[in-house]
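User: Teach me something about this protein's shape.
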Amino acid sequence: MRRLPMMLAAAGLFGIGYLTGLSQAGNSKALIAATQPPQQSGIAALSDDTLVTYKKAFRSTNDLSDILRAESLYAPATEGLNYFALSVGGIDVVRDLEEGRGVDPETFAALYADRAVPEISQNIDRDESGRVRYKGTVVRLYSRDQLKEMFRHRDQLEVRARRASD
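Assistant: First, the predicted structure itself:
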C-alpha cells in the first residue's frame, strides 16, 4: 500500500517536468543562444580607445626591441615581438637554444605554435612524443629558479623606470 503513493508522487513529478519541458519547446531561441559563443570576440570586441592604446604600446615595445637589439641584449628566435623577453630587459634566446639551457615561456609557446624564425626553424623537429627539439635537444622551459630571477629583474626594471620618469 505504501508503494502506491510513492509511485503516484514520482509520476506526478515526472508529469510536471514533462509539461514544463513542453512549454519551453517553442522557445528554442534561448537554447540556441545558450549554445552559441558571443557575437563579438577578440579584436572585433576591442573599443577604439583600446586599439589606440594598443597601437601606442606596440610602437613603444617595438622601439624597445630595436634598442635592446642594438645593445645585443635581445635576440629572439620566433616571429614577432617577444613581450616576455622585452619585459625582463632582453634575452638572447638564440644563445639559450644553442646551449640547450631552456627558453622563456613566450618562446616555448611560440616554438610549439610553429612560429620560429627561418634560421631557427631549419633546426627544429619533433620527437616521437611530439616534443619540440632544436638540433636534436628537447626544448625545455627555463628552470623555476631562472624564471623567478627573471621576474625579480623585471620588478627592478619597473621600479627604475618609474623613478626615471619622475
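Now, about its shape. The first helix runs from residue 3 to 25. Helices lie at 3-25, 28-35, 48-70, 83-87, 93-99, 105-112, 118-121, 144-165. If you'd like, I can walk through any region in more detail.
User: That's plenty for now, thanks!
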